[in-house]
Amino acid sequence: QSKHQCHKKEAAPILTQPLFLLHGKFFLLLYSDMRRFIVILIVVLTVVFTIGATQRWEEVDTPPRAMVELQDIDENPIGIAVSDGYIYVSSEKRITVKVFTILGQLVSEETLPEGIHRFLMRAKGIYIVKIGACTHRVTI
Q1: What is the pLDDT of residue 5?
Q2: CB within 10 Å: which end of the chain, N or C, has fewer?
Q3: Exposure string (b/e) for 102-125, b if CB count within 10 Å is 16 or more?
């Protein structure tokens, strides 16, 4: 008699559900995670492009009716006006324009070529516009 005991290997557990149902649950889980990811991605991109969009000065052909004339140190005649939520700036030379909130936060800084340009202000309020060496307060 042999004193060796044989250990019977237990059979692998039998799946209680067909394999395609397990794959179905996996894909359903993957699908819901993917939907959640896509929704989050759309929200993030919307916020980035809406808030993060850089406002730019745009060149226009005609100035608004009432331009206030300012005189720069360089004897460069400068015009500034506000109309329909835009700040308009005109100059015969290349100039640097900075727009600040009343609290001093920089909204825009750009060097503009000669001509008439406008900048859309998204929020109403009082702003300080520095054009070259001239400073002017505007109300939107």
Answers
A1: 53
A2: N
A3: eeeeebbeeebeeebbbbebeeee
Helix (H, G, I), strand (E, B) or coil at 63: coil
pTM: 0.60
Under 8 Å between Cβ of 72 and 131: yes
What local confidence, expressed as pLDDT, does residue 116 receive? 94
Beta bridge mates, 68: 80
3-state helix, strand, coil in the chain (%, to 5): 25, 35, 40
* Cα radius of gyration (the chain): 33
Residue 30 φ then ψ, to 5°: -60, -40
> Which residue in the block uniquely carries the two structure tokens 């015009």?
79
| Structure token digits, residue 29 | 């889980």
pLDDT beneath 70, residues of the chain: 1-33, 47-54, 71-74
Q: Distance between CA atoms of 18 and 31, rounded to whole angstroms?
A: 20
Assigned token pair, 39? 């929704």
What are 30's two structure tokens?
């993957």
Provide the pLDDT for residue 2. Answer: 47
